[in-house]
Amino acid sequence: MPVTETRTPNEAAVDVTGLAKVYGERRAVDGLELVLQRGSVVGLVGPNGAGKTTALRMLLGLIQRDGGSGTVLGSNLDDHIGYLPKVGALIEGPAFTPSLSARKNLLVLTRLVGLPDSRADDVLAQVELSDRAKDKVKTYSLGMRQRLGIAASLLTDPELLVLDEPTNGLDPAGIREVRDLLRQLADEGVSVLVSSHLLAEIEAICDHVVLINQGQVGYSGTVKGMIGGQVAQVVARPADPDRLTDLAAVAARFGETTTNDDGTVSFEGEQDVAAQLNQAAFDAGVLLSGLGILRPTLEQAFFALTEKSPAQAASPQEEGES
Amino acid sequence: MWRIIRSEWVKLRRPAYLWVPLLITTVFTAGLTVANLLNAETTVSNDRNGPPQHLISDYTAAHGATIGIKIGGSLAMIIALVIFAAAVATEYQTGTIRNLLIREPRRVRLMLSRWVGLCTWAIVLVAVTVIAGLVAGVITASSRGFDTSAWFTGPGLRHLGAVTLYLWLGFCLFGSMGAILGILFKSPVAATGVSIAWLLIVENILGTVFPGVKDWLPGNVSGAVYSGGTDTLAFGPALGLITGYLVIAGGATLAWFSRSDITS
Questions:
Q1: What does the pLDDT look like over B7-27, one tens digit per residue?
Q2: pTM attached to this predicted model
Q3: Which of A17, A111, B22, B69 could bridge to B7 as Cys pair (CB 3.0-4.6 Å)?
Q4: Using a CB-CB distance cutoff of 8 angstroms, which residues of chain B are in contact with residue A107?
Q5: Domain covering A229-305, topology
Q6: Mean pLDDT (whole number) for A146-153
Q7: Which residues 6+ apart lie within 8 Å of B210 measured at CB?
Q8: A10-225 carries CATH number 3.40.50.300
Q9: Angle at CA B225, nearest 5°, toward B219 and B229?
Q10: Closest approach of B65 to chain A, Cα-based (Å)
Q11: Could you report the predicted ipTM of this complex, rounded to two decimals?
Q12: Chain A closest CA to B96's CA: distance in Å?
């Protein structure tokens, strides 16, 4: 299993290896390795059913694991009593008693852990829900419930924050607020493990990304490294659309070429190849009206990696991290 | 434990868990007390089709205050079962069980403390049942010119105290059945439905077909505790037997719960 970070268990907020969960014949999580350095924001991505939430549930002690060992915040993975008081979590969406107000829902939790009631007011202010604190949660929008869920996860001033789809249902302003909040928390030393299907969010928030596919790590490293593992495309457009075939013939000298429906020709290559194509096309009498490099996005990297088996997908990581 | 009980009471103060059950209990207990007192005669009627009848001499005796209270308590016991089951099982339906377990990973401690919290809620239910029956009894008896002075003598108050304790034990026992089934079924409707079906239908059928097992069935044994003992099962053995049942069933349920996957 590829692991790119230098493993320093004493410093890592989460350092687990071989994490496994089996449901009948299906291995929902299969030998997962996860390292989260303190004060970093790590994104957990993967297709539906990849095992992200199952992995988080195991870390939070909600489900029994069938394999694996490691530490969370310096405590053994089995020692839930040792580390869970220092963990804040929002998993599988915000869960609250609908007929209670937001404040009372938080009081259920503050009293459970022996915090003063004023702590509920503090976190409600932090997520800007103070003016609706006395309203029943059943009157809240999904976005407001999400903010309340984040507030609940912050109650204990956690050292580790585990958030499952934290921006789900939020409007663009809310998404930005969550993004800023997570960055601020990370700057204050809080370690954040965030699972999301919004890859743009992961790209904007996270230092590192862990891609889970079929229960295994498909990639673990920097966001830049994940994207960098994918090859850029040179895209060229002839000034005269009738010369598209001629341009494709010229481009074929540089690699396998694709003629696109939008009147462009593309092939794998970087800036230097683009310059060579420009010269070659000019020499062949084909003038270009457009020439550029199409950099892969995290989304493209995600699809490229998830279409491979986890073992195959592991190779770009090493390139990206080198 | 105290922290968990305080947390539980935030939820138990909701109208559906507090005021509605208390209002139903008050109306039912007071109503039945009034109806029975108005129906009391000097001699037992020969009309076998009529409602159960008490003699005026029963009501003027030291234990007279508790007649209506015990009748009202029989409904309150079902209410206790429903509330215990709902309090436990609704956490699965709303997903709030995750919030609780992440903050208190000692699952057995969490559930036992919540059960203690629910038993403190049962104290309120008992208090309301007793007060409703007593107030309605005094007013109605007075309107009919019955002498209730014996209710407030030493023996009368001791009997009232004993009945109050039996009622509370009964509420906790029936509630515990609801709570156990709430953990197992993870659904308040299923837990309540199965509990009531067992108590009202299955136990009656079993008791009729196999009369010898009647005093071993949990519902009947709980009923004996709530009644302070019956002709065939004294209070002490009944309490011992039902405590044994609860320790076994509750222990097995908690053992399962402590290892079960929380996926809701």
A1: 999 999 999 999 999 999 999
A2: 0.81
A3: A111
A4: 7, 10
A5: Alpha-Beta Plaits (3.30.70)
A6: 91
A7: none
A8: yes
A9: 115
A10: 38
A11: 0.85
A12: 5
